[in-house]
Amino acid sequence: MTELEIMQRAKMYMDKLAQGIDPITEREVPEDSVLNNVRLARCFFYVSGVLEQVIANGGKVNKAAKGNFYITEEELRRVQLSQEPILISQLTELVMNAIDDPDRKRLSTTTVTNWLILKGFLQKQESPDGKSKRLPTPAGEQLGLTVRIREGQYGTYQAVYYSQNAQQFILEHLTDILNPGK
């Protein structure tokens, strides 16, 4: 029997149970049987409907689309900051590590850096090759943002590092970062 056939049989069983029929004997379930409970009948109808949707989809279950990123206070308390300066991508990874939900949308580095630009801690600058860079302002440097030269596959570039103080500041303002218009 294939998975789809098993689901079809399970749906048939749920339909019969919902109608008060024993799916094995094909007889009516006795009035005093727990299977005749109205709540159970509703549950059987519900499960049958879910199985019908899965069967109609060829046996595949569609995952719900990920919503916007959010974090609870408890999850926020679990974030373990780095004592060493780190990149923004590493900070967002530390935040995601504190969240026990693989289906949760990830915290975007762009969301964080755009807020830092809005608040005057970073500024966009165009490099000679026409690329836009985000570099710390004097206020950002005071917060603990520093620039280091790194070597990548396309040559050298400037990377912004976030001190533990800057990391803490971002965590403390994460609600504002996620809702910049409020």
Summarize this entry quickly:
The chain is α+β, with helices and mostly antiparallel strands. 45% of the residues lie in helices and 14% in strands.
**Kindly state the mean pLDDT as a whole number?**
89
Structural class call reads: alpha+beta
Helix content: 40-55%
Distance between the termini: 56 Å
Spatial shape: elongated
The oligomeric state of the chains shown is single chain
Number of strands: 4
- Taking all Cα atoms into account, the compactness measure Rg is 27 Å
N to C succession of SSEs:
HHHHHEEHEEHH
What proportion strand? Answer: 5-15%
**Number of helices, where a helix is a run of at least 4 consecutive DSSP H or I residues:** 8
User: How many domains in all?
Assistant: 2
Low-pLDDT segments: none
The neighbouring-strand order within the major sheet is 1-2
How would a textbook summarize the main sheet? 2 strands, antiparallel
